[in-house]
Specification:
eight-stranded mixed β-barrel, 23 helices, globular, alpha+beta, six-stranded mixed sheet
Length: about 750
């Protein structure tokens, strides 16, 4: 049964949020989390089947209701809806989204204007923080601009009441306005002392000067790029601050999000602002300021002896002006109803009113059974009375196949196989069977595209031409679906697992959450890709020798050190390159843009993206192709990539830099990761207990496919010219490539821990 949920789409500050009244999310038989995830289209990186925008700033929900608490008008709950994971984070407030509350409450009659001004008292249920918002309705503030938003909106003053000590109980958790932090050293960098203000107001903050950050000699406009070069040092300071504030027992245990780090500097000569500031969030420079961060900086400016107060030439008035990389932000501190209030002005604008479609997913087998029997679909409430299905025993796509079959559409969807009686996979013929590919990543990505293309082609080479059912079981960066396959896959040769670097690397790292093992699966076929490492020429990169002996390290832009980036990190370590890294980009596309803006110096791309993303900037001279990853040949030697025959490999780059051939654990680790993440990046795997006859038939069919000239022509755009491998030597070749020595595991684990502060668990 389809439900509709009333919602309003609004921009609040620099975020977009869907605003719900609490009662609208009360769908019988479903939790609020389940409703939000379905409405937003999560988990899915594109949120293609929902109203989420595929980014953290556009996957936010504001849940409102009139408050029953005396002196409070509105109860406000903020929800950060997961994108690639089916989770909803209720642990924090969003200052930007808070801006929508006053205009919403006024429009719906929860509050009323008085003498041209609306005042709304709000309780944030996530944190217990009390807010007070005001809007002038006389037209004087109806079209204001704020940094980070190109269009105007209704101005909303947002004040945080008594914000000091919300997390730790004290404004100064270290009991003094200025602390000397003992920043621990590591294998490559000595320890040092750093002065910082440790303050808890709005959010816990570590506030340091530009000199402490190593940015005092840089132009303020260059801070975002220069901070990336100092990211390792800044992160060590932030973690030391977390320990001193009592937020973590050790630097290694400090959270990534709390505390935040702010870097401040005196204004330039003649400038009107009180001080300059850049904040880092999750290790990356914030283009403007988090609202909660601006609250802490405002209070710090008024506390003698703090890092901020020591910069000011005069005592601040009620309004404080801060210069951020995106422009000026003004905050204020005043008494409201006898209480200290700190706040700023954001803008809000209603974008649309909507009736969102909520289509609950009932028990798949029950749906199919009902349709086959000619019965009506169960209503949502009735569906809740069914027994819980076994966890992921069948994916939703398989259920859809059954429904289509019941409607007489099975022949079109699955090649006619589903309605036939069950057959055997051991007789050399898959007639009557359906080949299911478990894709442990979301629909629409590179792995999903590869799997659907390969599967659709492969079934036509398999005797009997089975049906085809691709099933996406995303979650946990590919681990969830792979774990499910290892635990409960059909072992008759009709269910295969799709692997990619995203699922292989966690297995190499022996992560606790990984329950699958590739040495307990049977390879059916593998296919690789290639790539190059390139750099920004304005960073002084003309050839590979410019990677070493630098006065200041180059900055590599990464997504996650424990994913495909790992091979690049090992390459840099093998070369002894002077490189530091910043992670958290949402994809290689954003890294490429950051490199073109001068925010990072180094990036890599796979072959499929080279022509569109890298070739143009290489040809115009703004980027230099430094080296290719190379490929493993049949003997396990690293050779040049056929798609980049003129580009030296990482091994050749080492010889150019150091004059000798590389050897030792670093070389072996690189060779291993090259095979796992590039040469044999993607694959199809059967359970270990699958019938030998079925496994052999699938391999032979994959090999026949690889020899088909028409297929190879069609595959050029998808596979990038890298061959499908399913020959007689496949088992031995994969066994050798997927045998990861304890020495390599130990080296990679140590590299992540010592250089990137990442503990594998």
């Amino acid at each position: 049964m389809k439900h509709t949920v009333k919602a309003t789409w609004m921009r609040g500050g620099t975020s977009k949020c869907w605003v719900f009244e609490r009662s609208a999310l009360e769908v019988p038989g479903f939790t609020t989390e389940e409703v939000l995830l379905r409405l937003f289209g999560s988990p899915d990186p594109r949120q293609i089947d929902g109203v989420g925008g595929g980014s953290s700033t556009t996957s936010k929900a504001v849940i409102l209701s009139p408050s029953e608490e005396p002196g409070v008008d509105v109860d406000y709950t903020f929800a950060q809806v997961g994108i690639e994971q089916a989770v909803v984070d209720w642990g924090s407030n969003c200052g930007n989204c808070s801006a929508v509350i006053a205009p919403y409450a006024l429009k719906h009659g929860w509050v009323h204007a008085d003498d041209g001004q609306a005042t709304v008292r709000i309780r944030n249920t996530n944190t217990g923080q009390l807010l007070i918002e005001r809007m002038n309705l006389d037209g004087t503030q109806s079209a204001e601009f704020i940094p980070g938003v190109p269009f105007p909106g209704q101005a909303v003053e947002i004040g945080f009441l008594d914000p000091a000590g919300g997390t730790t109980g004290q404004l100064f958790p270290a009991s003094e306005p200025l602390s000397t932090l003992q920043v621990a050293g590591n294998a490559t960098h000595p320890g040092f002392e750093a002065e910082a203000t440790l303050l808890d107001a709005g959010a816990p903050l570590v506030i340091i000067t530009a000199a402490q950050a190593g940015l005092d000699a840089a132009d303020f406009s260059d801070w975002p790029a220069q901070a990336l070069a100092e990211s390792e040092r800044l992160e060590r300071i932030r973690r030391a601050g977390a320990v001193a504030m009592g937020l973590a027992g050790s630097a290694e245990a400090a959270q990534r999000a709390i505390p935040k780090l702010a870097i401040v500097q005196s204004p330039g000569h003649g400038d009107e602002e009180n001080f300059r500031v850049m904040m880092l969030s999750m290790g990356a420079p914030h283009p403007a300021l988090a609202i909660t961060g601006s609250v802490g900086l405002t209070m710090a400016a008024r506390q003698p002896g703090t890092t901020v107060a020591n910069l000011l030439s005069t005592e601040p008035g009620e309004v404080l002006c801060m210069q951020t990389p995106a422009g000026q932000i003004r905050t204020w501190q005043r008494q409201i109803e006898g209480r200290t209030a700190v706040g700023t002005t954001r803008t809000a604008r209603e974008l649309a009113e909507a009736q969102l479609s909520f289509d609950p997913v009932t028990h798949p087998e029950a749906q199919a059974t009902a349709l086959l029997a000619g019965e009506p679909m169960l209503a949502t409430e009735s569906a809740q009375l069914l027994d819980d299905p076994p966890p992921h025993k069948r994916g939703t796509v398989f259920a859809s196949v059954a429904i289509f079959a019941a409607l007489g559409l099975g022949a079109t969807l699955v090649g006619g196989g589903l309605l036939n009686p069950p057959a055997t996979t051991t007789d050399g013929d898959y007639a009557g069977e359906t080949l299911q590919l478990v894709i442990p990543l979301a629909e629409g990505g590179g792995t999903d595209t590869w799997a659907r293309f390969i599967g659709q082609e492969l079934i036509h080479e398999i005797p009997g031409v089975p049906g085809f059912a691709p099933t996406n079981e995303s979650g946990g960066e590919g681990i969830t679906g792979s774990n499910r396959f290892a635990a409960s896959a059909n072992d008759d040769g009709t269910e295969l697992l799709v692997s990619t670097a995203t699922t292989v690397v966690p297995w190499v790292l022996d992560r606790d959450v990984v329950k699958y093992s590739f040495d307990k699966l049977e390879p059916i076929m593998v296919n690789g890709t290639g790539g190059v490492i390139y750099g920004r020429t304005d960073a002084g990169l003309k050839d590979v020798k410019d990677l070493v002996d630098r006065k200041k390290p180059l900055v590599f832009g990464g997504i996650a050190a424990t994913g495909l980036d790992l091979t690049t990190l090992v390459a840099f370590d093998l070369l002894d390159a002077d490189v530091t890294s910043t992670f958290g980009f949402e994809g290689r596309g954003p890294v490429n843009l950051a490199l073109q803006r001068g925010e990072v110096d180094l990036d890599y791309t796979t072959t499929s993206s080279y022509d569109s993303a890298v070739r143009p900037i290489a040809e115009d001279g703004s980027a230099k192709i430094l080296m290719s990853f190379g490929q493993l040949d049949g003997q396990g030697e690293i050779v040049r990539d056929p798609n980049f025959p003129e580009v030296p490999t990482v091994i050749e780059a080492y010889e150019q830099i150091h004059g000798t051939k590389p050897e030792g654990p670093k070389l072996e680790a690189y060779r291993t990761l090259l095979g796992l993440t590039y040469t044999y990046q993607k694959g199809l795997w059967a359970p270990k207990d699958a019938p030998e006859e079925a496994v052999q038939l699938l391999r032979e069919s994959a090999h026949e496919l690889s020899q088909n000239e028409e297929f190879n022509e069609r595959a050029e755009a998808v596979l990038g010219g890298y061959p499908v491998v399913a020959d007689e030597q496949l088992s031995q070749r994969i066994k050798e490539a997927y045998t990861v020595s304890e020495e390599t595991k130990s080296y990679v684990t140590s590299l992540l821990k010592d250089s990137y502060k990442i503990e594998i668990n």
